[in-house]
Design goal:
This protein has 2 helices and 3 strands, in the order βαββα. The protein is of the alpha/beta class. The protein has a 3-stranded parallel sheet with strand order 1-2-3. The relative contact order is 0.22.
Length: about 80
C-alpha cells in the first residue's frame, strides 16, 4: 500500500491502471494530457472518485497539458 503517494504521469491512466491505483491506495494522481479514447479517471470512467469502490484518490488533471500532449505525439511519431 502507498497511502502517502502522489503519482505524476503525462497521460490520464487507463481503467486498469486506475484500478491498480485504487488497490495501492494512493492519495493523489496528477496527470498532464487527457486520454479521450481510453482514460479511466475522467474521460471515460471516474474510477478514482467512484463511491462504490473501497478507496478514492484526489485527481488533478491538465497540468502542462499541451507539453505532455506534444511529448507523447512526438514519441509515437518517432516509433512509427
Amino acid at each position: 500500500r502507498l497511502p502517502d503517494t502522489v503519482l505524476y504521469v503525462t497521460l490520464e491512466p487507463c481503467p486498469m491502471c486506475a484500478a491498480a491505483l485504487v488497490h495501492a491506495r494512493i492519495a493523489r494522481l496528477v496527470y498532464g494530457a487527457v486520454d479521450p479514447k481510453g482514460g479511466g479517471v475522467v474521460s471515460k470512467y471516474g474510477i478514482g472518485v467512484d463511491g462504490l469502490l473501497n478507496h478514492r484518490f484526489s485527481v488533478t488533471g491538465g497540468v502542462l497539458q499541451e507539453k505532455c500532449s506534444l511529448l507523447l505525439r512526438d514519441f509515437f511519431q518517432k516509433r512509427r
